[in-house]
Amino acid sequence: MELRYQTQSFFVMLACLFFLAGCGSYQVEESEETETSGPYGVDVTLSNAQLFTSLYPLHLYFFDSQGAVSWEEEVLSQPEWPALSMPKGEYVFSVISGLSSGDYLPPMALNSKQFLAFSEGNYAKTPLVIGKNVVKLQNDVKVSVSLSYAVAALYLFFGGVPDEAISVEARISPVSSGISLEGALSNDGQFASIPCEKVKGVWKAGPIYVLPSEGLQTHLSLNIQTASEETVYGYFFNYPLEAGRPYRFISTGDGEISLEGNTQIAGWTPEVSEEFPFENMTEEGEWEEPDAPDGGEGTEGNEDEDDGQDTEEDTDVIVSEVLPESETVWGPFFVWKVESLSTNEVLATLVSPRQWLLKKAEAISVSEAYEEDGISGWRTFTTEEAKEFRDQYDDTIVELSDMLAENGLDRFNKYDCRYLCNDFNSTFCFYNTQIVKSGETVDYALRLVKKVRVEKAK
Fold first, then answer.
1. For bias kind Acidic residues, which ranges apply (predicted)?
2. pTM > 0.70
3. Of 149, 167, 183, which residue constitutes the final position of a domain?
4. Which of 9, 389, 412, 443 is the most exposed place for a label (fewest CB within 10 A)?
């Protein structure tokens, strides 16, 4: 009897062991079956939205680890905020305000590394606000995004401008020409060209918004046009522009200056205000006071002592089919002009496809090292070439730039900068006829040229 009881107890215990083992196996299988790749919900909070008076419409983007857009949507108002969800993975989530204004142009391809650009003049009338966060999705998450202004705000007031002025354009540099969809500035040192309006004797503009660019100074120049001439005046501030900060640049003189606006605006850091007499502005080309080298005086009558650059050795180039023609794109180059040497040979003046914005010393280094399509020995325009090129394209430089851009070459700038010439000793531009001495601390545009002899293959 006792043996039978022990036997029964053994079988009961054995059955329990099998049952428990089965339960353990079931739990493992259930864990594997419930592991998914999403989609997971993303609950977004804009942590400081109350600081911005007008945020909507908002553009929302999810970018994958390669920078490609995985999802995008425009949100017109807070009640229309969508329910966000994405598959498992790591994303950059971007929130952008201001794109619906038309002041900014989206990149051709939606990628987090591509740049937004301005629709005109490297400035906008609507501020750009950006926020982003890295989101690692392995389950439903809550994400807090802090927003900030990507732009600096400019308020411009110019008194003391000559009464005979019929138009005034302000140019601010350096600024960035673009910003990526995740908030990285292009930092390409461009110029913002801002038309001003005359009100009660004062030329005004603003608020307008620009993207900052790295630098040590900010340069303000005024292009003042009268019925008979154009004059450019310049002024420097010893600091770069900062995103999220308002600036007031004020030249004093005749006229009633009314400084409207609040100096403490929610979401902006305290403003910087600069006031100076208009007479303290210097005519462009006169910032550098040291004795000028021979041929380097700041007037057009003193460039006769040229650099003699057009005596450089020509590079022989053999083409297989046709010879280059004037004012066409030939390979990577713009062919400015062609001189026929024989039925099968021409002397072509090429213009580099690239353009730089550099100080004089940096420009010299770039020129010495530059090589394109196996061709080296590039130089600046001579003074005579600069006059000829300027006169030829004075009225059509925009059309030429459009053609260059369509073929993948950099554009020329009509109003934004002066170009180095005369072996870096002088500068020219397309907004006046002055050839002036170059300085050491000013950023100039650099466009290189090269004469080559092209022979048709036999």
1. 273-294, 300-313
2. no
3. 149
4. 9
Clarify whether residues 99 and 169 are in a common domain: no
Asked, for residue 303, whether it belongs to a domain, the answer is no
Tens of pLDDT, residue by residue, the chain (458 residues): 444 444 444 444 444 444 444 444 333 333 344 557 778 888 888 988 888 888 899 999 999 988 888 888 899 988 888 888 889 889 999 999 999 888 998 877 788 888 888 988 899 999 999 999 999 988 888 988 999 999 999 999 999 999 999 999 999 988 988 899 888 998 877 889 899 999 988 999 989 999 998 877 898 989 898 988 888 888 889 899 999 999 999 998 765 555 555 445 667 888 999 998 888 887 764 333 333 333 333 334 344 444 444 444 556 676 757 788 999 999 899 999 999 988 888 999 999 999 998 888 899 999 999 988 888 899 999 999 999 999 999 889 889 998 999 999 999 987 667 899 999 999 998 877 778 888 777 788 999 999 999 888 77
